[in-house]
Amino acid sequence: MAKRVRAVDPWKLKKWYSVISPRIWDEKEVGSTAASDEKLLYGRVLQVPASFLTGSVGHAQYILKFRIVQVVGSEARTIFEGYELDNAFIKRLTRRHSSKIEVVFDVKTRDDHVLHVKAITWTAVHVSRNQATAIRKIMQQMIEERAQKFGADELMKEFVIGDFTRKIADEASKIAPIRRVEVAKVRVLQRPEKQDAEKITAAEAAA
User: Fold this and answer.
1) How far apart are alpha carbons 43 and 22 in whole angstroms?
2) Ranges for all domains in the chain classified under CATH 3.30.479.30
3) How many Å apart are CA 117 and CA 120, to the nearest integer?
4) In the prediction, which pLDDT does 206 show?
5) Number of C-alpha atoms within 13 angstroms, CB side, residue 1?
């Protein structure tokens, strides 16, 4: 009679790693992930509500994205890839008899990152096409000016927990009554070549 071979649970062969946020988010543990080989962790993206890091429920609608680029012992270290506003939150802000004004563009930061940005303004009343165009121009111009003063990580963090969108709203209110302004989505399109090389070198050294 053939001897039965027990199947090995693949999860028992995996090791768990703590996922650590970048320095701009205070290098806090934001979750855990498992892998049978640490090399399989590289490139994984973890999504976390900003409230998990700030402790404020007012930031729960911002979904932060961190990509694993380095493994040190049992820690998987990440870079900030961007964030997006929760779709349900956007739908709640969109109402009849008002306008939702969007602008989408790419912007270069002070530290030579290229970010893909989507900003939205919700007005208190329905606005004309000319008013909407003027508000789009304000959003893009103010974000571009801000990007010249900040690095990518600093800029994205300010969009989430700073008062910058309130400043846009104040300026746009000269055109029409404004209910809210949000930088609804930001994604890193391009990082400086030097920084990419440093990340690759660190990852290879840890592998």
Assistant:
1) 15
2) 87-190
3) 10
4) 43
5) 1
Q: Domain 87-190 in CATH: superfamily?
A: Band 7 domain (3.30.479.30)
In terms of Cα–Cα distance, which of 41, 45, 42 is closest to 21? Answer: 45
Task: Tell me which amino acid residue 158 is.
Answer: E
CA distances from 176 to 126, 164, 179, 190 (A): 9, 18, 10, 35
User: Which residues of the chain have a pLDDT value below 70?
Assistant: 1-13, 194-207
From the CB of residue 202, how many other CB atoms can be counted at a distance below 10 Å? 15
Print the SS3 string covering the chain: CCCCCCCCCHHHHCEEEEEECCHHHCCCEEEEEEECCHHHHCCCEEEEECHHHHCCHHHCCEEEEEEEEEEECCEEEEEEEEEEECHHHHHHHCCCCCCEEEEEEEEECCCCCEEEEEEEEEECCCCCHHHHHHHHHHHHHHHHHHHCCCCHHHHHHHHHHCCHHHHHHHHHCCCCCEEEEEEEEEEEEECCHHHHHHHHHHHHHHC
Report the distance separating Cα 120 and Cα 61, nearest Å. Answer: 15
103-159: pLDDT as tens digits: 999 999 999 999 999 999 999 999 999 999 999 999 999 999 999 999 999 999 999
